[in-house]
Backbone:
């Protein structure tokens, strides 16, 4: 089991391995209906069994979570956890088109979380 074991529940996670994953936006977008301005952000999360808090943070170049500062958060979202039937061996972040725009999906082991990304 990855979540709740290797990645503890209720603790800040860099949402990837080694350095925190960084996401660059060339224009502002709505993330689950909330505005996120153009820029580059580190992606952090706080996984829990039933929901995750996803965090887009202005601090860059983080190796782990020790340099994370909450006051640099640009956006925090709470999203439900979906359990997958199949095991995803490798940690994966992907974008899929849907009827409303894009879905950003995070998958690992049998855990999946997803957010909607649309134009403002």
Residues:
């Amino acid at each position: 089991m990855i979540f709740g074991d290797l990645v503890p529940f209720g603790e800040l996670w860099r949402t990837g391995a080694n350095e925190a994953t960084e996401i660059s936006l060339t224009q502002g977008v709505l993330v689950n209906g909330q505005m996120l301005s153009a820029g580059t952000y580190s992606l952090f999360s706080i996984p829990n069994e039933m929901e995750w808090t996803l965090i887009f943070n202005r601090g860059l170049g983080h190796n782990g979570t020790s340099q994370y500062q909450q006051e640099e958060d640009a956006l925090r979202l709470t999203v439900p956890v979906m359990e997958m039937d199949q095991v995803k061996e490798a940690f994966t972040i992907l974008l899929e088109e849907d009827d409303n725009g894009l879905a950003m999906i995070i998958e690992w082991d049998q855990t999946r979380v997803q957010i909607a990304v649309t134009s403002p």
In short: The longest strand covers residues 101-118. The chain has no helices and eight strands. The two ends are 38 Å apart (CA to CA).
